[in-house]
Write a structure and sequence with these properties.
Layout (H helix, E strand, L loop, with lengths): L2 H30 L4 E7 L18 H9 L1 E7 L4 H10 L3 H4 L13 H7 L3 E7 L18 E5 L15 E2 L2 E2 L8 H15 L5 E6 L27 H25 L6 E7 L8 E4 L2 E4 L7 H4 E7 L8 E8 L3 H9 L14 H4 L10 E5 L19 E5 L3 E4 L4 E3 L15 H16 L13
Parallel strand pairs: 1-7, 1-8, 2-12, 3-4, 3-7
Antiparallel strand pairs: 2-11, 4-5, 5-6, 8-11, 9-10, 13-14, 14-15, 15-16
Length: 451
Amino acid sequence: MSVLNTKQFTVRLFLLIIACFLVSIAEGTAKTKKHYNVILIMADDSAVDNYGCYGSTFFKTPRLDALARTGAKFNHCYSEPVCTPSRVKIMTGRDGIRNYVQFGTLDRDEITFGTMMKQAGYATAIAGKWQLHGGNRGTLAPACGFDTYCLWNYPGTERSRYWNPSIMQDGKLLQTGKDDYGPDIFTNFLIDFIGRNKNKPFFAYYPMVLVHSPFPKSPDNVGTNGKTAQAKGEALENFRGMTLYADKLVGKIIDALESHGLRENTVVIFTTDNGTHRSLTYPFGKEKRTGEKAFATEGGSHSPLIISCPGTVPTGVVSDDLVDFSDMMPTIAGITGAKLPNVELDGRSFWPQCLGQTGNPRKWIFQYYYPKFVQAAKNHGQGINGLEIVWAQNQHFKLYRDGTLYATSDRHEETPIDSGGDKEADAARTLLKGALDSMPSRAGKLQPKKI
């Protein structure tokens, strides 16, 4: 071999070794890069003040308190005041003024986070409450991107969601008996889904049936009065037990993740869809608070928001940034790298804040609400049938489209704030008026007919 050929051989060998080394590093990086699973849990009819980590001493929520303590907790998350607009908003990333049709309907043309995640290559599942198939524009779980489902308030089901529940699972009505408890069935369905998909990325959405009325005893509180009996005065104590049981079911899902070695690459998100039922009065600190479900007040839409992923979400993150339900889809995309749908979205990702970073916090949120509960529109209803309620708010102030400004600390909105009396309030009025003006002035899909 000539000297020149020997040098060429040596150079080529060196370059080959370097190339192999770089490939090895790249493969190692690919193997260690986390592909996060996401589980989104949303309890039904439960305000922020029903949770220990948000200051309640009456309601016990030890598993959720632990998630908040070891993960991220947001102090200013807002749903809509009732379930349908909250569910549509959280699933589509779009405000109701763009896509609200009627109560119990998710418009079939909307693109949901289920479809987004399925297109990203994730296994997808939903369990719990549906109630989005109403009218001639409603839709079903498979059309929303879910590979598998286990749902109540779905075509073919009846009224019972708790004991002896009526549940549709992947097109088949489950045969249940008097000793079967719906929330256990939904939770076990998701735990089975986790086990079957432990070796590939998955997205699970759990819109719980707990803790909505009626208020029967939970399995941990069944007594001689029977499972479905509700004696006069039992509602609050049963609701308290149901809250603890919902917390227990969240814990079962966490335990399942740990048993499969998935805890550190699964982001668990917990929130609620609206305020507590109006029939309930409960203690909070030195106050007695009555549920404000369906009212466009602080108690109607202020929700808990807890995010947990050990090793990724730092311990003890507490954020005062605003979060709107339209932010959930962009946040899930930010966690997973999924591609957002090519439609006009209203949300933004709060994933950076979960990581302890500054992120891109909101200065305001916008809310559009067409109530089924007509009394909710008494003070500020406008537009179609005089029932449309529109407002913008930040952490401290809230401005309705009719020009009425309140402090958010004024829980029952009893004292409107006049212009010119307070510099901070006047600045907020200007900000929030700009927010209102930046959004559509008319509902895109709501038809002007009587409910």
